[in-house]
Structure formats: C-alpha cells, structure tokens
Amino acid sequence: LYTQFSRRHSVKIHFGKTAIAAIASVTSVLLVSCENKVAQCNKIVAVANKATTEVQQTSQGKDEKIDQLGKMVTSLDNYAKEMGAIELKDEQLKGYQGRFVAMYQQMSTSSKSLIDAAKQKKAPQAQSALAELQKSVALEQPLVNEVNQYCQGK
C-alpha cells in the first residue's frame, strides 16, 4: 500500500500478516457481536410470530370451541418448548425468552382448566379459568413491545 504525500515523496505503509489478521479478528468479533443480537432477536421473534399466527388461526377455526382450545393447548405447549430451546447468549433476550415460555405455559394451563370446567359444566371454575387465560393473554403485547424496542436498539 502506497500513500503519496507530495510529488517528490511517497511513503510505503507495510502491514504484516499478523497485524492484518489481528485487525480482521477484531472487526469480525465486533460484527459477530452485532449480528448475534440481531440473529438472536430474529429467533425469538420468529417463534413468537408462529405461535401467535397458529393460535389465532386455531381460535378462528370451524371446530367446536372446546376442540379449538384443545388444539391451542397443544400449540402453546409446543411453542413453550420451542421458545425454551433457543440458545441465547444475550442476557436481556434470555429474560424475554423466559417470560415468553412462562406466558405460553400459563395460557396452556388456563386453557386446560377452562376445558375441564366446560366439560364438567362448572360455570364458576370456567369463569375463573377464563379470567386467568385473559390475564395471560394480556401479557403478550407488552412483552412483544419490549422485545421490539430492545431488538431495534431503542
């Protein structure tokens, strides 16, 4: 690499292979760190989006309501496992991951209770299970907003 300072003088700047390798390593570590957060965010968002889409589609299906809830329980259990299986290094994302898993598990448990109460025709228990399910569902949007803000760097 040559850099000209004037017409009469030119300076040869020589970087050894070790210096170039060191610079490349530092640069790649910085890029990988940035990409890791983005990649990890994308993994969480992908599972959350799949879960939301599937649960919405199931709840709008033509099956009986109890059958719809049964399918939702299966989906929620599967998404809790899938979300929990994501390998993350970012501590903040691990926190969000745990909250998603807990939310899916709470929604599943509440849905199971609602199914049982409806099958047994126990209105008070059904009302209680429905209230618990609604509390669990209400956790989703604030959690999604927090993840989006963190992942977008805001």
Question: What descriptive keywords fit this protein?
Answer:
4% strand, 154 residues, mainly alpha, disordered N terminus, 5 helices, two-stranded antiparallel ribbon, single chain
Would you kindly provide a written description of the structure presented here, covering whatever features stand out?
The protein has 154 residues and is mainly alpha-helical. The protein contains 5 helices and 2 strands; from the N terminus they run E-E-H-H-H-H-H. The longest helix has 43 residues, at 17-59. The chain is elongated and about 50 Å long.
Would you kindly provide a brief summary of this structure?
By secondary structure, this protein is mainly alpha-helical.
- In whole angstroms, how far apart are the ends? 40 Å
What general outline do the C-alpha atoms trace?
elongated
Count of distinct strands: 2
Distinct helical segment count? 5
Would you spell out the secondary-structure blueprint of this structure?
Elements (H helix, E strand, L loop, with lengths): L1 E3 L5 E3 L4 H43 L5 H20 L6 H29 L3 H16 L1 H12 L3
Antiparallel strand pairs: 1-2
Helix pairs in contact: 1-2, 1-5, 2-3, 3-4, 3-5
